[in-house]
Amino acid sequence: MSQRTAIIVLGVALSVIILGRVSRAPAPTPAPVPEAAVTAPAVTRPPRHLGPLAATLNTPLLGTPAIDLNARLATRRRIEREGGRVYLDSMLATTDSVVIRWGGDHPPTLTVRFEPDSSRKGWQGALDDARTGMRSWADNPSGFAFRESKDSVVDVVVRWNTMLEEKSQLGLTVVTWNAAGIIESAIVTLGLFQNPDSIPAPPPVRRRVAAHEFGHVLGLPHSSRLDDLMHSSSPVLAPSRRDLATLQLLYAINPGPVRTP
Ligand SMILES: [Zn+2]
User: Ligand 1 mean position to 104 CA, how many Å?
Assistant: First the structure.
């Protein structure tokens, strides 16, 4: 296989510990999370790289053309200039210094296939909640739109599972990209239940988780601020100004490695 791929797993977890530490007032319409269902701290998973790409990324830059190095430095400087207005630096920490995003020649509409599973209790309502979460990214500054499709080949697949691997986790997005940092596909898995006692995830929580996961689909990493939708335990229901600014910057810079010596 000539094209090298890497996979990063980006999850969302609900954490009463983190929520309890924050002294600021909650967002206007935070979704209630039953405390009994919130038992574990936020989960940050390390990126899971397949061997070939990891080897490539760890190769010293010996022989890197000066023009390439200048481009990498320019990209890094552009990110640094934005300061706290954005959080793309967290992407570089999880991708081994690769800017990942959909390619510039990709149509601004991503096709999405929902795969509801009638064998799983509760998927019917969860489907509508997932659509609502997806629509929270409408009118984003990068012009990306989502279009539902039943085609076998789509950009994004959304599936459901009764529960995810981590007990407090309700969403998981696996993004695959090539050596040039271009995202090739995204698979979202949404959990229907919050814990082994089979407490269904409340609809507001499901919508919030879906909105968060679609942020990962667009390429966004995690934010460290709780008032951003892309915080791993965010209580907000829609992208913040900072989420949108980060998305805008992501599609204003070139994808690919930005590691410098
Ligand atoms: Zn996440």
Answer: 24
Which residues on adjacent β-strands are paired with residue 9? 174
Q: Ligand 1 centre from 10 Cα, in Å?
A: 5
Please report, in angstroms and rounded to a whole number, the separation of the first and last CA atoms in the chain. Answer: 29
CATH code for position 123: 3.40.390.10
Mean pLDDT by 10 residues, the chain (261 residues): 43 30 35 32 34 33 64 89 93 91 84 90 88 95 93 96 83 94 95 81 93 97 96 94 96 90 73
The Å distance, Cα 209 to ligand 1 centre, comes to 8
Instruction: Give the pTM.
Output: 0.76
Q: Tell me which residue has tokens 């609900």.
A: 14
Q: How far is the CA of 65 from the centre of ligand 1 (A)?
A: 35
Q: How many domains, in total, are found in the chain?
A: 1
The boundaries of the domain holding residue 98 are 5-57+65-257
Residues with Cβ within 8 Å of 104's Cβ and at least 6 positions away in sequence, in order, are: none
Distance from the alpha carbon of residue 157 to the mean position of ligand 1, in angstroms: 16
